[in-house]
Amino acid sequence: MSAARLVVVQVRYQLKVFMRSPVAVFFTVMFPVLMLVLMNALFAGDADIEGPGGEAWPVQQFYVGGLSAFAAVSATFTNLANVVPVRRDDGILKRWRSTPLPAWACIAGYVGSATIVAAVGVALTWGLGVAFYDITIDVAKLPVAVLTFVLAVGSFAALGLAVASLIRTAESAPAVANAIILPLGFVSSVFVPTADPPAWMAFLGDAFPLKPFAETFQDVFNPFVDPPAFVAHRLIRIAAWGVVGVAIALWRFRWEPHRTSGAPGRRRGRGRGRQAPATTSG
Amino acid sequence: MSTEVSTAIAVSGLRKEYDGGILAVDGVDLEVAAGEVYALLGHNGAGKSTTVEILEGHRTRTAGSVAVLGLDPAREGRALRDRIGIVLQSSGIEPSLTVREAVEIYGSCYSTRRPVAEAIELAGLADQADQRVGSLSGGQQRRVDFALGIVGRPEVLFLDEPTTGFDPAARRSAWEVVSGLGAGGTTVLLTTHYLEEAEHLADRVGVLAHGRMVAEGTPAELIGSRGGAVVSFALPDGVEPAELDGVVPRDARIAGRQVDIATATPTADLARLTAWAVGRGVELDGLRVHQPTLEDVFLELAGEREVAR
Q: Where are chain A's structural domains?
């Protein structure tokens, strides 16, 4: 079987499993959409946000940009950081290591399916913006938007795998992933406009890759930013975090459950508490 | 390759030392012929799973040589995994997939495959093919493991404690599946601590204890090699095991109320025992003299101390 065909089978398999998990679909795809609807309902009547040059900037444009970036991040980073430890604890990853499937094809299935989900999330939020929130997409800015999307999806998927590699048990995965991504959303101008944030908040936002991603998408809808809206240092910051993610994942990724995490396969109710014939020496 | 036609698995001087100096496998030699069904017996911690995981390429070895189908699992793992099937005791399947989907997806990466329907049929899951794996009983899920283990037409099939946790009926039907595969010419290496399982399925049995192979042969050979007989009886109520000192040999096994004496001189042992019982005025329920079973041999070989855990 050709390499391409192997990857296609893996991506379709991961998408199928994803689609059959209503909780995953809701939190990954619908949650950012819901946030978009709520934020707009709450703040649409409010005063405009101050743009980069002091101009008035409607809040809808701000939210569509930031929350679509957030949707892509939850489809990649949050999704993989949650799902991979579960598959590892359940022995699913170990089973794949028992087959001739190359490791890279297995990983490609996770990353590829997450990328597709991320694209759907972005399309959904942008579509909502165009349909209901009076957003116009400047075609001249699309190349930069697409480039940023591809880079960001790769980086956040790598970071998701990195966190999955560091998490020891599936139980702690959702807490760890959310403890990282939700505060980061607040300091990265995703949920709340931060025209003049405290210095430490600005520093945190600038240090991590979510803010450059969100800002690039917000620029796509900001009429005061001229095309092509290309800002090299944003892309460099996103890519640099991708390299960090890949390095950690290569260093720490495990296919087998950690010994301390209890009996593998427990989700399938397979006890391991076997007893040898009880006998004592006479 | 051509020299390996008749030998499916060849292991010599295999050693595995884990971090902290724990010696899990201590110089195991093992040879399994093509088409043979071989059972590795041993208690938990005897080194069965470690040995098998080294053969599968899941674990590295500290020393020794290993060839499965002429390939070194440590260096040619992918080529090897294309030609073997592995049924682990601890691997899961996405519960939301149907049996058919799982067999299709997992089968897709082998270069030679059985038709999906055939793998499902062989595993005895034809009626459950379109049910989700998560909705199946434990025994049925184990059959899915079998189906996934054989979908790639393996030349060697590894079964790690294939029926642990099964009820007797499920165990018997799993045995039928394995026997069918063995009859079809597939080499099978299984680990178990069910003696009847080894006796029922295996052409040959190896007994591991403390990382060493302490005995090897057909079940009949192993039983025959011990010779003698076993005297068994139930300890009467009100009699302490200590009262049997000097009455039964020191190496008699006492499990709960059950006493088994493996002996080369059953007549003399029986005479001493019955004389004591008559003198004490107790009746020995279930008193009998019989041929040793594989379990008797195993318990004697594998050592009883660790069983008490």
A: 3-260
- Distance to chain B for A14, nearest Cα, Å: 10
CA-to-CA distance for A239 and A103, rounded, in angstroms? 23
Chain A CA closest to residue B259: A282
Tell me what pLDDT residue A51 has: 63
- C-alpha separations of A70 from A63, A73, A161 in Å: 10, 5, 17
Residue A263 in contact with partner chain B when CB distance is under 8 A: yes
Structural domains in chain B, sorted by start: 2-223 (3.40.50.300), 228-291 (3.30.70)
**Region for B247 from its dihedrals, namely left if φ exceeds 0, alpha if ψ lies in -120 to 50, beta otherwise:** alpha
- Touching check for A260 and chain B: CB below 8 Å? no
Q: How many Å is the Cα radius of gyration of chain A?
A: 21
Q: Which of A60, A54, A22 is nearest to A40 (CA)?
A: A60
Q: Does A257 touch chain B (CB under 8 A)?
A: yes
Longest Cα–Cα distance in chain B: 73
The pLDDT of residue B139 is 81
Facing A1 at nearest CB: one of B91, B108, B161: B108
Record the tokens describing residue B274, joined without a space.
């019955």
ipTM above 0.85 for this complex: no
The answer to whether B129 and B99 have CB atoms below 8 angstroms apart is yes
- Residues of chain A numbered 12-41 and touching chain B (CB < 8 Å): 13, 16-17, 20-21
State whether A95 and B91 contact (CB < 8 Å).
yes
| Helix, strand or coil, per DSSP, at residue B64 | strand
Measured in Å, how far apart are chain B's first and last C-alpha atoms? 45
The answer, yes or no, to whether residue A235 has pLDDT greater than 80, is yes
DSSP symbol at B71: B
Closest chain A residue by Cα to residue B245: A282
Hey, which residues does B234 pair with through a beta bridge?
Answer: B258
Q: Is the pLDDT of residue A208 over 90?
A: yes
pLDDT value at residue A239: 94
In this complex, the residue of A20, A265, A279 whose CB is nearest that of residue B90 is: A265
Q: How far apart are CA A109 and CA A14, in angstroms?
A: 6
A contacts of B152 (beta carbons < 8 Å): 99-100
Closest A-chain CA to B107: A99
